[in-house]
Design goal:
The chain has about 300 residues and is α/β, with parallel strands linked by helices. The protein has eight helices and ten strands. The chain has helices at about 45-60, 75-85, 100-110, 120-135, 150-165, 180-195, 240-255, 260-275; strands spanning about 15, 30-35, 65-70, 90-95, 110-115, 140, 175, 200-205, 235-240, 280-285.
Amino acid sequence: MAVASILDKVGATPLLRLARLDPELSGVEVWAKAEFLNPSGSVKDRAAKSMIEDGIWTGRFAEGKILLDATSGNTGISYAMFCAALGRRAELCVPKNLSRGRKLVLEAYGAGLIETDPLLGSDGAQLKARELAGSFSDKYFYPDQYNNPENWKAHYRGTAEEIWAQTGGGITHFVAGTGSCGTFVGTVRRLKEFNSAVQGVVMQPDSPLHGLEGMRHLASSIVPGCYDSGLADAVVEASTGEARKTAAALARTEGLFVGVSSGANVSAALRLARRLPAGSLVVTVLCDSGFRYLDDGFWEEPLAPS
């Protein structure tokens, strides 16, 4: 009998129609890929699995080496979970102000944490990981999620294929945010091969100072090497307040308890959908679970009608 692994449970997530969130939409449908149903609770399982398996296959992640990378939370949790399942170690560079909840999850999986300047955010963590990897190359396997092509290829091979099949080839627009940019790039690249008319829409925070965990304002941060601006047919910005309200509305009207980045994606998708012609089908991504954000105070605020 084949032995099942947690790595085998990544992907094949459902695509859900958001039918009640905006009842005034006429002739346009908005659907969301439920990536929070991946094993660790986020879309980052896809890229982390791909990068780890490639590292093992190529010999770069040899026995005895420690996985090292920068993370704002979700990719690190995926790394830590998979390393635990494989009997390997992970050390992760994280901003010092990373939420206590995320730190507890990382520590529960046995990951070591290297805290970096909170004022530098994920960029500071990335610079520290790069420094350590360069100084101790014999010690670390450095997948470098922001520049590793296996990041976007995971979505090219998986997410896009699933969406194309689940929509029966009917998708017209795909909306995803700017974290490592792997979800956007890999999915759009493959969807455009299926149908060049599919539009790729980038969602990014509306300012450098924002509360969209894991998302980056491209004009003011290190642009990931994974990003390909040629795939972006449009850019839609989302505010932190709008994202939080939409996350709350998703829980209360659709029964989907998801995080703030998911709220940002959906708010951008809805804004886009309101100006599209009838027959359009917009797909976006529910990146992670709302349980990742329970120590964020906004859930206690009256963000949407109950």
